[in-house]
Amino acid sequence: MEPMDGLPAADYSLIPVQQYFGLKKRRQLDYVTSTGCRYRCRFCADPFVFKRQWTGLSADQVVERVTDLVQESGATDVNFQDETFFTDRRRTLEIAKGFFERKLHFSWAATMRADQGCRLTDDDWQRLKRSGLRKLLIGVEAGSERMHNRLGKDITLEQVNEVSRRCRDTDIAVTYPF
Fold first, then answer.
1. Sign of torsion, CA 95 97 100 101?
2. Angle at 154 between CA 58 and CA 139, to 5 degrees
3. How many CB atoms lie within 10 A of CB 26?
4. Using CA atoms, how far apart are residues 71 and 48, in angstroms rounded to an integer?
5. Model confidence over 72-128: pLDDT tens digits?
6. Nearest Cα to Cα of residue 88 among 70, 110, 67
7. Closest CA to 113 of 74, 145, 83, 152
């Protein structure tokens, strides 16, 4: 896996952004800040394609590129489409800090595993909310520990419930794919 900071930024001038907003009925842009996945879920191609490796743009690059994109496009929401946006806790918190410090007026959504959310402190959750985090997509995949084990998901229903409580307590919306 090659570091991503050396790659050029995505050229959004190739996309008719205003039409995109119209179709979505929201001034939302999708953005990818990382590639790969370190996990072993048996239903997913990523462990084989990426050999359980992950690489992402540095926090500074994410903040810089998203700031430029939001200012140029007039977007009011960014949906991070990474496989696992929260893979690197420190990076994620630095991104949130950068958004907050720049006083950017947009909300954002991202992907998270339940075990990643359990590693965040209450203070971390508050920082994320203040930075504009409005929604998480947390792949649960199944409703029983037996199926989680069979799928190689490596999360527990207790972790899912804990992250649900934290989302509720910080007023962050959540979607759970099954």
1. negative
2. 65
3. 13
4. 37
5. 999 999 999 999 999 999 999 999 999 999 988 899 999 999 999 999 999 999 999
6. 110
7. 83
Number of residues that this document lists for the chain:
178
- Is the sign of the CA dihedral 114, 33, 81, 93 positive or negative? positive
* Global pTM value: 0.92
Q: Is 43 exposed, middle or buried (0-12, 13-18, 19+ CB in 10 A)?
A: exposed
Sort strands 77-80 and 107-112 into parallel, antiparallel or unpaired: parallel
Instruction: Name the CA radius of gyration of the chain, rounded.
Output: 16
- Please check whether residue 17 is in contact with residue 65, taking contact to mean a CB–CB distance below 8 angstroms: no
**Alpha carbon distance 65, 10 (integer Å):** 9
pLDDT over 70 percentage in the chain: 100
